[in-house]
Amino acid sequence: MLRFFFWIFLIINGLLLALNLGYLGKWSDDEREPSRMKLEKNADKIKLLSANAAQDLIEAHGKQAEVKLSCVELSGFSAADAKAFDEKLKTLELATRLTRTELSEVANNMVYLPSLGSKDAAEKKAAQLRKLGIAEFYIVQDQSPMRWGISLGVFKTPEAAKAHLANLAKKGLKEAKLAPRTVSSAKVHYRVQELSSDERQILEQLKSNFASTTLQECKAKSD
């Protein structure tokens, strides 16, 4: 009997020795509970969020996914420029997002060519302007020192008038002048809403062909 217990004791000790030496594979809490141990090792990286903080995080993520839209106003188009601009706008398919308004403005800055002395001379100069690609002008025929001169546009601000002068110079007309002259003229304004960034870029490119016009962010509508 003693010999039996001796061999049992010896076998148990041999198994324990083999287990500790790794012959029977590792026996540790890491293998038995790997998920729990990983969580315990990274416990310092776990952050608990309050309900409000979690909601804010969800809303912030949603806002990032939203497409950013903008609203712009374009002003200062003459009747002739507005007609050309209307054709270009068709490529954007703005539909109800576009509002077009005609307003009467009092302008005080005229870009012009001085009197050419006669109707024939004025008409000859007008033909030269058309060859340069300048289509918006009229021959002054009233009884004033400007008679038989050519008006190339009247503008509300000096800055807009100077921009038009520079644009005319690029086309080859360098003798145009700027002078104060009060004239009531019709101008067309546009308001374009819900523009995507790509649409806005295209709109700005279209507007760049009309030097005397302005583009700005929409103003809040008054009640």
Describe the structure.
The chain has a domain of 147 residues. It is 43% helix and 25% strand. The chain contains eight helices and six strands, in the order H-H-H-H-E-H-E-H-E-E-H-E-H-E. The relative contact order is 0.18. InterPro entries: SPOR-like_dom (IPR007730), SPOR-like_sf (IPR036680).
- The dominant shape is rod-shaped
Low-confidence stretches: none
Overall pLDDT, averaged? 80
In angstroms, what is the radius of gyration?
40 Å
Please provide the ordered H/E string of secondary-structure elements: HHHHEHEHEEHEHE
Largest sheet: 6 strands, antiparallel
Helix content: 40-55%
DSSP strand content: 15-25%
Spatial strand arrangement across the major sheet: 3-4-2-5-1-6
Counting helices, strands and paired strands, the structural category is alpha+beta
Q: How many angstroms separate the termini?
A: 107 Å
Number of helices: 8
Q: How many strand units?
A: 6
Write the layout of secondary structure elements.
Elements: H1 2-21, H2 29-32, H3 34-41, H4 51-65, E1 70-77, H5 79-89, E2 98-113, H6 119-131, E3 138-139, E4 150-155, H7 158-170, E5 177-195, H8 197-207, E6 214-217
Antiparallel strand pairs: 1-5, 1-6, 2-4, 2-5, 3-4
Short characterization:
It contains 8 helices and 6 strands; from the N terminus they run ααααβαβαββαβαβ. With 223 residues, the chain is an alpha+beta fold.
